[in-house]
From TrEMBL:
GO MF annotation list: fluoride channel activity; metal ion binding
Protein name, as recorded: Fluoride-specific ion channel FluC
Superkingdom classification of source: Bacteria
Cell compartment(s), UniProt: Cell membrane
Transmembrane annotation, as ranges: 38-57, 64-81, 101-125
Amino acid sequence: MTTVLIALAGGAGALTRFVTDGAIARRNRLRMPVGTVVINVTGSLLLGLLTGLFALSGGDSSGAALKAVIGTGFCGGFTTFSTASVESMRLWAAEGRTAGIGYAAATLVLSVAAAAAGLGIGHLLA
């Protein structure tokens, strides 16, 4: 049953990513693909928060299943490393090496910082 819930949550995460990216793209006046950064940063924050919340729990099966459904399923479907990689290369080709590398570095640094913040907040709330 957990496998089915992970698959459904993954689909929900992918749909949420599609809708969120579209909404941001319609408002984005920059040449940078901001939607993917926002999605990866918020997904990293959510996964860090989830990990922080469950890190102090006793590891019961219901907690592990919930973490798998939200973490692996939803966050896995919501975030997208591959799109960020392709967008970095597109920026490199269209705007130059500095834009491509800057976008990749910003995505990485912001996502890791968001995951760390989520982990810290999760520990405080647990």
